[in-house]
């Protein structure tokens, strides 16, 4: 429902929203993709009085949001292009041999192994804690691994991420309708901030192939991540933030069904709570155009009561021990460093868009406000909040940049082209650097030993004390 009508960026009319009672087949497929882990969670984790209403709400909302006239036709070249491009991109990002993986995959495989090896919900009787984490990315591979063994984990992770990225690219072409689809998608996938410049000016590790997202300081003050970096390190946040954002973008003035917004919010929350926080301002802005359709819809009310409330009860359990606070109280923070960060990660792109392409930027005031404010607060050992809550705003910025650059008319777009070349170079260097990292073994990772268990900062991020009213015992 984030959208414009006409070249001047006027909001879509409420009448258009009222007519959008259903989803397109691709929108519906994306909503089902995000929702499936919710079904697995409530069936496998929740007590019956929580699971029953939740499952009925999911089925009812999906039925009401189904496409009006589903039609299947032979896939066109754009579909094939999205399939091939998403597969090649993930292959380069280490989802298939022979490339290495970032160290974050220690955590990813540990969570999946926890789901594959232990009864649901996974409980550690020695510490009297349960697995408490945003499990949207992990439950389906974990379930399949329980049934068929750990050998299927890597293929399932690849297939799930491939399908999610394919849906992102397909929805981009369906809704944005770029004049040059191929270059548009390539620029979008390799979009990133000017980390190379920040690393050159402020970085301490002078190794070219080292990761450069933390060029601000060694104390992990704040970072915004390019799209390649997201899929190299944290695909669960990337898929949730990107699919949630593109589902809120209008399709030729026809927004996503208002009836789906409650379910979409719950699904994104379960995949990535921080991405959901970053998505919330855009969802509220879209809902405000037809607030009666959204806030009084029975399905959305049911989703808030039967899905969002239990999910918050699960995700927030024991979360008070997770590190948090204002970034400007941290050692190493300075106003000049903060200003340089905002300029290099987003500001110069925004200035260049003002010269050419501003009409492509949806909700510019919200985008600018979020990208300026988000770095000032931190949650997590490595400030996951800044890196994940920024995904929706940065995605809208990436869409505007890719659409403008691939138009390639006149000379006003040249400054933006220079910026995107530098940003894409940083993404390519990150892909090459992580591809040279070592292989991360699936079988050796566990949540019950090693640094994820022994280091307090990590332990409280993935575990919470029993009991919990959502979970069955």
Give an overview of the whole structure.
The protein has about 475 residues and is mostly helical. It has one domain (about 15-440, about 450-465). The chain has helices at about 15-20, 25-45, 50-65, 75-90, 105-115, 140-150, 155-175, 180-190, 195-200, 225-235, 235-245, 260-270, 275-290, 290-295, 300-315, 335-355, 365-375, 385-390, 390-405, 415-435, 450-455, 455-460; strands at about 125, 130, 325, 375-380, 465. Strands 1-2-5 form a three-stranded antiparallel β-sheet. Strand 1 (about 125) and strand 2 (about 130) form a beta hairpin. Helix 4 (about 75-90) crosses helix 7 (about 155-175) and helix 17 (about 365-375) packs across helix 19. The model is unreliable at about 5-20 (pLDDT under 50).
In short:
By secondary structure, the chain is an all-alpha fold.
Could you give the count of β-strands? 5
Query: How many individual domains?
Result: 1
* Oligomeric composition of the shown chains: single chain
Low-confidence stretches: 3-19
Order of helices and strands: HHHHHEEHHHHHHHHHHEHHEHHHHHE
